[in-house]
Amino acid sequence: MLKNIALPLLLSVLSLSAMAEQTDLQDEPTVAQSATDNNGYIVDDLYLFMHTGPGKNYRILGSVEAGTPITILNSEQDDYIQIKDDKDREGWVQSQFVTSEPGLRQRLASANQALSDNNAQLNALQSRIPQLEQANLQLQQDNTALKSNITELEQALEAQVQASLNKSQTEQHMLLSYGGGIGIAGILIGVILTLVLSRRKRYDGWA
After folding, report:
1. Hey, how many other C-beta atoms are within 10 angstroms of the C-beta on 98?
2. What is the 3-state secondary structure (H, E, C) of the chain?
3. Is this structure's pTM higher than 0.70?
4. Sign of the dihedral through C-alpha 127, 133, 134, 135
5. Local confidence band at 203 (pLDDT 50, 70, 90 cut-offs)
6. Which tens digits make up the pLDDT trace of 2-13?
7. Exposed/middle/buried for residue 190 (C-beta within 10 Å: 0-12, 13-18, 19+)
8. Which positions, given as ranges, span the membrane (predicted)?
9. Phi-psi region of 3 (alpha: psi -120 to 50; beta: other; left: phi over 0)
10. How many Cα atoms sit within 13 Å of 24 on the Cβ side?
11. pLDDT (mean) for 24-35
12. What is the pLDDT of residue 16?
């Protein structure tokens, strides 16, 4: 029963997460016209040269691949901006090709990581389902045993109360019987004493 509830719920969460990641991948990055943040990215679908100064006339240090995360070091000068790339190289690139949004490569990597994390969570939760089912079964068995024990205790208590009531009634009957017997015996003794005394008086009178 827990498995039937948990699996659809987990699949729904994963579907919503995947839809959110897909929406992010469809969004186009905004190209930064001026450098205001320290972190940025090279726009997608571009192979960009990095120069030693703010212009094409400066010596080329190398190339920067599309989607590369960068650190912005200086504000814009002559449509160029100073950066540090992922190889710790410092140079200048055209500011129009720098964006504050991660490229498709980074977002795809993030989406894959999120999917991997969701799968790991799903596997972890699925591995717990047998344990939860076993725990649920054990709790049901314990509940049944407790109900049976309660029934037995209630029956034992009822029997004890009935036995105590019967004993009390028996003792009352015995006391009544003893009292009645003593009363009858007293009456008989009184009658006998009366007869004996009357006969003695009669004998004494004859004497």
Report:
1. 24
2. CHHHHHHHHHHHHHHHHHHHHHHHHHCCCCECCCCCCCEEEECCCCEEEEECCCCCCCCEEEEEECCCEEEECCCCECCEEEEECCCCCEEEEEHHHEECCCCHHHHHHHHHHHHHHHHHHHHHHHHHHHHHHHHHHHHHHHHHHHHHHHHHHHHHHHHHHHHHHHHHHHHHHHHHHHHHHHHHHHHHHHHHHHHHHHHHHHHHHHC
3. no
4. positive
5. low
6. 445 444 444 454
7. exposed
8. 175-197
9. alpha
10. 19
11. 43
12. 46
Residue 147: predicted pLDDT: 94
Distance separating alpha carbons of residues 32 and 100, to the nearest angstrom: 6
Residue 32 φ/ψ region, left for φ over 0, alpha for ψ in the -120 to 50 degree band, beta for the rest: beta
> How far, in Å, CA of 44 to CA of 39, rounded?
16
The Cα–Cα gap between 76 and 34 comes to 6
Cβ-proximal residues to 204 (8 Å cutoff; 6+ apart), any chain: none
CA dist 122 and 114 (Å) reads 12
- What are the tokens at 71? 């650190």
**Cα 66 to Cα 115: distance, rounded to the nearest angstrom:** 24
Please write the tens of the pLDDT for every residue from 80-133.
Answer: 988 888 888 899 988 888 877 777 777 788 889 999 999 999 999 888 889 989
Q: What is the mean pLDDT of residues 154-170?
A: 89
